From TrEMBL, chains A, B:
Keyword Transport set for record: no
Gene Ontology annotations of biological process type: formaldehyde catabolic process
UniProt subcellular location: Cytoplasm
Protein name in the entry: S-formylglutathione hydrolase
A GO MF label: carboxylic ester hydrolase activity
Main location (coarse class): cytoplasm
Assigned protein family: Belongs to the esterase D family.
Active site: 150, 226, 261
Organism: Aspergillus nanangensis
Length: 283, 283
């Protein structure tokens, strides 16, 4: 459970910590970043988990997403996990940019050989928070929200929908909203979960929202200039439709004119997503 | 004078344009970025020139500096030049990270072989603005401010001090404030300007401030955790001392506890620097 501090960087009045720890669930040393806002030096602060997209590490959004800007004002810590195990030397894990290394898809693999370490679901929902809460007592484990981008938007939505009550709120940028019906998701789920489509549905936000009971308040931003949106990798309309047809209210997709799939989009709207989380973390 | 648009990226309600043009002064195709705030679609907007540091291109600060955040609110365009000519194939230009490519130091070289294209002073003060104003009539050529980081902080200070009235305001992050007395500056000036120390002094902010007449209002942020500051590459104290001894008021150096030389520092304080420029651009 011990955490190694690799860098401490002053940012927006707080500290961005670059950390690592030996993870059991993913069977390797895992890097992660933690932003501690200035308020964390004198009080407990809630936590916003940000899940990254394909090919990213914990660093990309820490540098380009500007979540620290609003998190600093609100007094929210931001936890940035990595996107997959690293260096397991599983055959084929480095062959594609959208599968294997950098592309763990926030599931626990059941299919060999990926079931030997590709357990990003357990890692993000259990091991990493437990590790972070133990190492940083200023984090309030009872107040955690989740957000993410693209593959990480899929992660945020599905982790939230699978675990009612675990997270205070959820939002997403350009999420893969219906992975069982898009090429990225189909490739990943086939590789990690095998052929059993019932297992796939357990990690599909559009399928999960159909079973949601009670109120929901999901903020989603998708750029209309996002090539992956245009290519049908994201399918936020399917999520909206499924929610509507199931009588689940509160799935808000904002289609942002011209915005693309990049961190420029996140930088533009991260204040809104931190605000959305703050509404519930400080309720 | 024609400008090629390589990318148009939505950012903070405006557009970040990745551009290039065939530059005469630097004898090569030069990339630059221009952020047009939302206000530029309906009115003339003033311009803040941001000069980058060693090894950087126009992209680094566009992605990580967070200037668009405040520029969007204030209605200020941000012009990001590159840091040197590219691809001139001058012998030795790619041998060091702190000289030659990516390290033009905002001077016009007089020393061979660099006098054949390393004219970043003329490029930034004349050719690039002229090109940008011709291509983008929504830019107000009568309202221009300047800022920069490290080598670009040196550039901002010296271009401002050498050209009274040309820029409405100046600010800098971790500027090389007394290049004639630090290793980076000595190497660059020897290479670009030769042995004549009188020429060096013409591009040294600490020397130039001694001759300044009238009021001055320079905002400078330097992190106390900045390794290059600790190593004596920046020497902001020399600038402060020279200003004070010359009776020049208004050189404000804020020593920011723990902040380093990275873009995390700029992201944290860029709002302040845009605000500083806005005070004069909208005076």
């Amino acid at each position: 459970m011990s955490v190694t501090t690799k860098a401490t960087i002053a940012s927006f009045g707080g500290k961005l910590l670059k950390l690592s720890h030996a993870a059991t669930s993913t069977k390797c040393e895992m890097n992660f970043n933690l932003y501690l806002p200035p308020q964390a030096s004198s009080q407990k602060v809630p936590v916003l988990i940000y899940l990254s997209g394909l090919t990213c590490t914990a660093d990309n959004c820490s540098e380009k997403g500007f979540f620290q800007h609003a998190a600093s004002k609100k007094g929210i810590a931001v936890l940035y996990p990595d996107t997959s195990p690293r260096g397991l030397d599983i055959q084929g894990e480095n062959d594609s940019w959208d599968f294997g290394t950098g592309a763990g898809f926030y599931v626990d693999a059941t299919n060999a050989p990926y079931n030997n370490g590709y357990n990003m679901y357990t890692y993000v929902t259990e091991e990493l928070p437990k590790t972070a809460f133990a190492a940083f007592p200023q984090l309030d484990s009872s107040r955690v929200s989740i957000t993410g981008h693209s593959m990480g938007g899929h992660g945020a939505l599905t982790l939230f929908l699978r675990n009612p009550g675990k997270y205070k709120s959820v939002s997403a940028f350009a999420p893969i909203s219906n992975p069982i019906n898009c090429p990225w998701g189909q490739k990943a789920f086939a590789g990690y979960l095998g052929d059993d489509k019932a297992k796939w549905a357990e990690h599909d936000a559009t399928e999960l929202v159909k079973k949601w009971k009670g109120p929901l308040d999901v903020l989603i931003d998708v750029g209309t200039g996002d090539n992956f949106y245009k290519q049908g990798q994201l399918l936020p309309e399917n999520l909206e439709k499924a929610a509507k047809e199931s009588g689940v209210e509160g799935v808000t997709v904002r289609y942002q004119p011209d915005y693309d799939h990049s961190y420029f989009t996140m930088a533009t709207f991260s204040d809104d997503h931190v605000e959305h989380a703050a509404k519930y973390l400080f309720a």
